[in-house]
What does this fold into?
Amino acid sequence: MEYPPPNISAQSPAEVRKYAESLLDKVIEALTKEGPATERGASVVEPKPKDIVFKGTFEEVNKFFYENQWTDGLPIVPPTIEKVQEFLRYTDRSPDQVIGVMSPGKREVTVWKVAVNGVMAGCRPEYMPILIAVAEAVTDSRFGIQHAGSTSGWAPLILLNGPIINQLDFNYGPGVTRPGRQANTTVSRFLRLLMVNIPRYLIGVTDKATFGQNYFIALAEAEGESPWEPLSVDRGFKAGANVVTVTSAETLSDAFASFGTGEQHLKTIAWQVTRLLSTVPVILRFGRERSIIVALSPLIANLIAKSGYSKSDVKEYLFKNVRMRASEFDMILVENTACGLVAAGRLEKQFCESTDPDRMLPLVHAPKDFLIIVSGDPTRNRSFVSLQGGDQGLATSKEIKLPANWTKLMTELTK
It folds into this structure.
């Protein structure tokens, strides 16, 4: 017998309990029975970081890597010692320095391993400081990378701020979330390869997504075209700092249009955000906080700003207007209510200020849960929303630390 049975989502709590209790004795036996010495003492012999694991042609190397499940299914750039060392020129950190630990494999991420996966992804060596910051973000316990293989199949979304956007030629204009620009595309691919090769997120094994999302192209902010301070400042960093923010994304919405005055744009955006946040899985994973990305084109952001709205005003407007009736909220919760969650300490008192079924409940905890970013075609009236999975993949930001000789390295690149 195995648990859970295939139709667990359609079972009542009593049925779930019945299955669980039937396995209790077997679980206890498995945890306490001494197994054969060969099993207890078995260990996987893995190559050391600088070991040569294979020699061959480009095609032979890719076949070997693919068969060992060290790729995302696409051809990789063979990570030769020489290529990895070129990446290491762009950091002051030791190759052996441990950045963090990634689950489910609970394996250490070192600077060397970051460089290896950066090479494989097709990154340029000068992206190395960004890759390290991304690795720092996803190994932070706040982020919760161990949930990335869950049923919903969310993928990390990388957001980028700072002068490094222009220095390394990231796209923040038309088609910003499409593949095509090397920087945006390969930095995103790097993270997927890191997840495959360090904690071993393998499809159907440790990655149990029902369908799953593709990796999202790294999203750089159009800071020079925004009327407001960048996202990095909202996240507590000084203006001008190079910052990476990583958050989980269930999906990116369609690029919906809005029209009219700044107020009319806000009204449409609030309606669209409400529609997208009112889905069953999002409500069930409300979490202790939410990281809802609202991406506005520069055109829309400037129209709203000219109507007198600061970024804080926009967040307050969304908080007050992105709501649903308590009766609908409770219906989606199925076996609980908003007031029940308040009593259990899982939601704030604002969710049960009365028992009126027609009262309007917010779909985030606070205005700060909306992360506003300005990007995309500056001539288009479009916006999109990223749906985030509650406690799974909370927005986590890290400053990009540049090596002491960064200016010299950048000068060399222009020669």
Summary: The longest strand covers residues 155-161. Residues 52 and 213 are 33 Å apart (CA to CA).
